[in-house]
Amino acid sequence: MKLYFAPGACSLASHIVLCELGLPFTLERVNLRDKTIADGRDFRTINPLGYVPALELNDGEILTEGSAILFYLADLVPSAHLVPPAGEVSRYRLLAWLNFIGSELHKNFSPLFAKDTPAEYKAVVSERLAARFAHVDGVLAYSPYLADDSFSIADAYLFVVSNWASVVGFDLSPFPHLLAFRERILARPAVQAAMKSEGLL
Q: 111: which of 30, 51, 85, 167 lies 20 to 30 Å off by Cα?
């Protein structure tokens, strides 16, 4: 398999999960500014929308959208228990967390990265993010991970999205349980390996 990624982007979650599972894969770095791959090809020939992650399967098929890729990878190695089995309610609770992270956290960070976002709107978005992180912090006060008591694909995604706080100047200090969670996740060997590979450590 080949993972198309940009350092520190949401593709890092897929990279972490690949390392967690010990699956063989290669990396293809994408320049998100000009939408090119390292060899000069237009990345939009891989993903017409021009964003990462994209996962090229061994048969050449391309899978896009981070949550779908995370589920696909986890289902390849069910013994790793990164997602619960099909039919169990806990699987759909995990899916709910992925949807929450994608729509309530990930998307609300986007305006903070954009240089042309008005300051007034950035303040609105930051207030919205603070409320969402407060919800996450409350859950993590009673559980070491988002879903049950073990690491899952949702934890990888939350870790990556919360990394962006320092990049855009969003203060996570009001959320001590989230900060403790981040330390636990960062200590995982797979997380260290993926971040070192992307030049983030």
A: 30
CATH of the domain at 144: 1.20.1050.10
In this structure, the answer to whether residues 51 and 125 fall within a common structural domain is no
Question: Is pLDDT at 140 greater than 90 in this prediction?
Answer: yes
- Co-location of 19 and 110 in the same domain: no
**Same domain membership, residue 183 and residue 102:** yes
What's the order of all strands across the beta sheet hosting 2-5? Answer: 36-37, 26-31, 2-5, 54-56, 62-64
Domain with 20 in it:
2-80+190-197
pLDDT value at residue 147: 85
pLDDT tens-digit map of 80-133: 999 999 999 999 999 999 999 999 999 999 999 998 999 999 999 999 999 999
- DSSP β-bridge partners for residue 26: 2
Q: Which long-range contacts (CB under 8 A, 24 or more apart) does 169-173 make?
A: 169/112, 170/109, 170/112, 170/126, 170/129, 172/133
Handedness of CA 92, 94, 97, 101 (dihedral sign): negative
Give me the pLDDT at residue 72, please: 97
pTM of the model: 0.96
Residues 60 and 29 in one domain: yes
Place of tokens 């320092």: 166
88, 33 Cβ separation under 8 angstroms: no
Same domain (yes/no): 93, 24: no
